[in-house]
Structure formats: structure tokens, C-alpha cells
């Protein structure tokens, strides 16, 4: 048996604690009598992108209505009374994981402001890499900020623009910001969508009953029976009004560079992102992983849920049986009280349980989507051994994560990333597996349907693996690497 990791008694045993945290999700619709109810359903489908808070803003032709709540969409927007208060044929919504700003109500989106030209509500997915520096300039010039969310910066920039039309003001704001973002905004006459110049964050256009909508993923269209029209292009603003759809380019045309993590982890498997089926890509990743790292074993076991498609591809490629050797309890929330170490340890089994019948006495290949801190992997390997696994071989369906993200994914600073501080053998010893292997970067690009990674102009945003950041990181000089990596608000 391999070296076992020593986990301190006070270690966090939440199996969700070592994942890459979701970004956020946005949804908007214009001109539909059931706008708010449709937005709520869309947010349900996007719940995987953020579980900390949700909000909806609607417009009834005269007044904007807002409901913003901590917690899950189903906890706040499933009752008829709440939806009834959100009157009007146009609405936008947001599900949040707080990568910027704390989980306090004033940070819950959509944010709303009264401008000289009328009301403006904004919700966004991603992170602005110069929001701190812009905020400092705004405050120095007398602006009063009410949140610590970088979304508020967009509102301020639009409000301060001297342009007469709201769209022109919005363009001014977009041209001043850097980073990765998909934005939905609502005015008294228009629904606006915008996608960053590199298309790092996803945004799609859909249609239902002749009315148009915007969403982070196609799965939000599917839940309401809407038709997918097209992806919003990188550097494009889409304006939806009673006159129809207008497309405006606010940035020079350049090759798209979407976030590779949408395919590895973030997007729902049934979504299609930039024309690629997420499920198909994840299965392809499993095939490539098997070709690169196959080993003598008896069974392939996914780490649920995100490891399932890759494990299925791995099993198909190797001919090994695919078994659900870990069963996930989907009905346990993140707020379970864990006052003592013994109860915390029980919390592991509340969320994930070993399926002993599938793994006892067997050599198992565990397939997971990523390895971040490694603490979760330690506990999963231990769980498999306690359930009688004879050998545990860990396979990771992505390359080693060696650099933090600054575009809306909550990653630890570099010093806490296992792959940044350990070599492969050191990582194997730490998690206690008999063997450990990662998908290579060329293998990842092959799984994406590319012949190879174009080093001069990469097809995807893959900085977590390569350190190749596609935009300027202005705020890094203000916040420092540690705070900026955690995307905490500067003082």
C-alpha cells in the first residue's frame, strides 16, 4: 500500500471545499408576459454556477422591481407571491458565487441605479481585472459606492459617461474595463447583453414565443423550451427591444479565447458552449486520459458528479467496467453544522458514500475533473481504501493547476495549489494513491478537437495550467498576488 497522507485533526472535511468554485450565472428576457417566472426557471437551470445568492429585477413599464436574496433560487423564487411582486414583461436575473465582494445583501445582483436617462439594472458573470483601480479613481472623484462588487463599477462608468444614449454610455463603460465578463442589463426600453472582447465567459441568445432572451448557458434555454439562436460574439453588444435585435461591436474583432474550464468543470454537461457539447468534450477528455495514462485495473470509478463523463470515456477507451463506486447525496446543503471533529468526519459520509459492493477487493481507477488543494482527494482515497479497494489509481481529467485564476473563478493563491508546490510523486504521496496521473495540455486540446495548442495565439483561456493570462491584470499591483488571487476587495 502507498504512503498515506497525514491530515490534521482540524482539517476541513467538506468534500465540496476543494473544488474550483463556480463563477456566476445570468439570464434575461424581454417582452414576455411571464418574464420573471421564466427568469426564475432559467436561474434554476444555472444554479450550478452559484449557490450563495440569487436576484431578479423586472420592469413593468413604469417601475423597476427588485428581489435579491441569499441562498438558492428554489428557496427564494419558487413561491407565487415573490414572482407576483416582480411585475412586468422584462426581467433579468443572477445566481452568485462571491468571487468579488462578500456574501452580503448589498452585493447580490442585479444591481440597480437611477441614471439621468432612466433606470439601469446590471448583472454580470466573471471578474474585472481593473475594477479596484477604477473604483479608487471613482471614490477619489467623489463617487459613493454601496457594494464591494465589481459590477457596481460598470454602473458608475455608465452614469458618468457624457454620451446621450444609454447604449453609448454602456459602450463607454465596457471600453474602460478589463477582464472576463458576460453582462445582462435592463433599461426601461431595452434588454442588453455583452460579452468580453475575448469571449472568455459564455453568453447565448435564445427565443421563446417570438421573444428573445439571454443566458449564460444553453441548459437555461432548454428548461423553458426556448430555442437556441446563437452565441453572443466576443466583443459584441446585443440590444433587444420592441424594434427587434440590434448587434453592436464595442471591441475590435479578434479570435475568440473562451475559458477552458467551462468544458472541464463549470458548464452543465447538457449545455452546448461555443458550438461544442460539454458532455461530448468531457467524454473525449476521458478517452485522451486513458490513452495517456491507462493502467492495469479492474474498474473505473468517477468522483461525482463532475468526473462522471470523463470516467465514462476512460472506461470506454480501456474496456474496463464503469461503476458508481461513490454515491453522492444531492440533498445535503452546504450549511450543515459541523461543531466537532467527529461530526465533521461524519459530514464526509453525508455527502459522499463509498459503494462497497462495487469496489471491495478491486483495483480501481478514480477519475476526477481537477486537483486543486488536494485535501478532497486525500479523503476520497482514504474512503476507497476503507471500503476495501485493493489499489487506488487516481486520474485527473485536466492538466495540473499551477496558477491562480483572476477572471471569476475562486482559486486559492499559488502557494496553496498542490501542483504548484509538489512534483508528481510528491502529490501522489500526499493524496495516498498507488499512482497519480494528469491529462496533458496537448491531450486536453485534442479532446477539444484541436490538433495542438497554438502557443502564439492559444485557442482557449488556459492560464491555470500555463500561466498565460490573456488580459492585463491591473489590480494585481494594487491587491498583491494573494489578495487578488482570492479576489477580495481591497481596503
UniProtKB/TrEMBL annotation:
Any Gene Ontology biological process: purine nucleobase biosynthetic process
Cofactor: binding comment: Binds 1 Mg(2+) ion per subunit.
PROSITE patterns reported for this sequence: GATASE_TYPE_2
GO molecular function, one term: amidophosphoribosyltransferase activity
This protein's record includes keyword Glycosyltransferase: yes
Pathway, per record: Purine metabolism; IMP biosynthesis via de novo pathway; N(1)-(5-phospho-D-ribosyl)glycinamide from 5-phospho-alpha-D-ribose 1-diphosphate: step 1/2
Residues forming the catalytic site: 24
Residues reported in the UniProt entry to bind Mg(2+): 306, 368-369
Catalytic activity: 5-phospho-beta-D-ribosylamine + L-glutamate + diphosphate = 5-phospho-alpha-D-ribose 1-diphosphate + L-glutamine + H2O
Domain named Glutamine amidotransferase type-2: residues: 24-243
CDD domains: GPATase_N (cd00715), PRTases_typeI (cd06223)
Pfam families named among the record's database cross-references: GATase_7, Pribosyltran
InterPro entries: GATase_2_dom, Ntn_hydrolases_N, PRTase-like, PRTase_dom, PurF, PurF_N
SUPFAM superfamilies reported in the protein's UniProt record: N-terminal nucleophile aminohydrolases (Ntn hydrolases), PRTase-like
Record keywords, A-Z: Glutamine amidotransferase, Glycosyltransferase, Magnesium, Metal-binding, Purine biosynthesis, Transferase
EC number(s) given by UniProt: 2.4.2.14
Family: In the C-terminal section; belongs to the purine/pyrimidine phosphoribosyltransferase family.
Function per UniProt: Catalyzes the formation of phosphoribosylamine from phosphoribosylpyrophosphate (PRPP) and glutamine.
Name assigned to this protein: Amidophosphoribosyltransferase
Lineage of the species this protein comes from: Bacteria, Pseudomonadati, Pseudomonadota, Alphaproteobacteria, Hyphomicrobiales
Encoding gene, per UniProt annotation: purF
Amino acid at each position: 500500500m502507498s504512503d498515506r497522507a497525514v491530515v490534521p485533526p482540524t482539517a476541513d472535511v467538506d468534500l465540496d471545499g476543494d473544488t474550483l468554485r463556480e463563477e456566476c450565472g445570468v439570464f434575461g428576457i424581454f417582452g414576455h408576459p411571464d418574464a420573471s417566472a421564466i427568469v426564475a426557471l432559467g436561474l434554476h437551470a444555472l444554479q450550478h454556477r452559484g449557490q450563495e445568492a440569487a436576484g431578479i429585477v423586472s420592469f413593468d413599464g413604469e417601475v423597476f422591481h427588485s428581489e435579491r436574496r441569499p441562498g438558492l433560487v428554489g428557496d427564494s423564487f419558487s413561491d407565487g407571491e415573490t414572482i407576483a411582486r416582480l411585475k412586468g414583461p422584462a426581467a433579468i436575473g443572477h445566481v452568485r458565487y462571491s468571487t468579488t465582494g462578500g456574501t452580503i445583501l448589498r452585493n447580490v445582483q442585479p444591481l440597480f441605479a437611477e441614471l439621468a436617462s432612466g433606470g439601469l439594472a446590471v448583472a454580470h458573470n466573471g471578474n474585472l481585472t481593473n475594477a479596484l483601480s477604477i473604483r479608487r479613481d471613482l471614490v477619489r472623484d467623489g463617487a459613493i459606492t454601496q457594494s464591494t462588487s465589481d459590477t457596481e463599477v460598470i454602473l458608475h462608468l455608465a452614469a458618468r459617461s457624457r454620451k446621450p444614449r444609454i447604449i453609448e454610455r454602456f459602450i463607454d463603460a465596457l471600453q474602460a474595463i478589463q477582464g472576463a465578463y458576460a453582462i445582462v442589463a435592463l433599461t426601461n426600453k431595452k434588454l442588453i447583453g455583452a460579452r468580453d472582447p475575448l469571449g472568455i465567459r459564455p453568453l447565448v441568445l435564445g427565443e421563446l414565443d417570438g421573444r428573445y432572451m439571454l443566458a449564460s448557458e444553453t441548459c437555461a434555454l432548454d428548461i423553458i423550451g426556448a430555442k437556441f439562436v446563437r452565441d453572443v460574439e466576443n466583443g459584441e453588444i446585443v440590444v433587444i427591444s420592441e424594434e427587434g435585435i440590434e448587434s453592436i461591436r464595442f471591441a475590435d474583432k479578434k479570435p475568440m479565447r473562451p475559458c477552458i474550464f467551462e468544458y472541464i468543470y463549470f458548464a452543465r454537461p447538457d449545455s452546448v458552449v461555443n458550438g461544442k457539447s460539454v458532455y461530448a468534450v468531457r467524454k473525449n477528455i476521458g478517452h485522451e486520459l486513458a490513452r495517456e495514462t491507462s493502467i492495469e485495473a479492474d474498474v473505473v470509478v468517477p468522483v461525482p458528479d463532475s468526473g462522471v463523463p470523463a470516467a465514462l470515456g476512460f472506461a470506454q477507451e480501456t474496456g474496463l467496467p464503469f461503476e458508481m463506486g461513490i454515491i453522492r447525496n444531492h440533498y445535503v446543503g452546504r450549511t450543515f453544522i459541523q461543531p466537532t471533529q467527529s461530526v465533521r468526519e461524519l459530514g464526509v459520509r453525508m455527502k459522499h458514500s463509498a459503494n462497497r459492493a462495487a469496489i471491495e477487493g478491486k483495483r480501481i481507477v478514480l477519475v476526477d475533473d481537477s486537483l486543486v488543494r488536494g485535501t478532497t482527494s486525500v479523503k476520497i482515497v482514504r474512503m476507497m481504501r476503507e471500503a476495501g479497494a485493493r489499489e487506488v489509481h487516481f486520474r485527473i481529467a485536466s492538466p495540473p493547476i499551477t496558477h491562480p485564476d483572476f477572471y471569476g473563478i475562486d482559486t486559492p493563491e499559488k502557494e496553496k495549489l498542490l501542483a504548484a508546490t509538489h512534483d508528481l510523486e510528491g502529490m501522489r504521496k500526499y493524496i495516498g494513491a498507488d499512482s497519480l496521473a494528469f491529462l496533458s495540455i496537448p491531450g486536453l486540446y485534442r479532446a477539444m478537437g484541436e490538433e495542438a495548442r497554438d502557443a502564439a495565439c492559444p485557442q482557449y483561456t488556459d492560464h491555470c495550467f500555463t500561466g498565460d493570462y490573456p488580459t492585463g491584470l491591473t489590480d494585481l499591483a494594487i491587491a498583491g498576488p494573494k489578495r487578488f488571487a482570492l479576489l477580495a476587495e481591497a481596503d
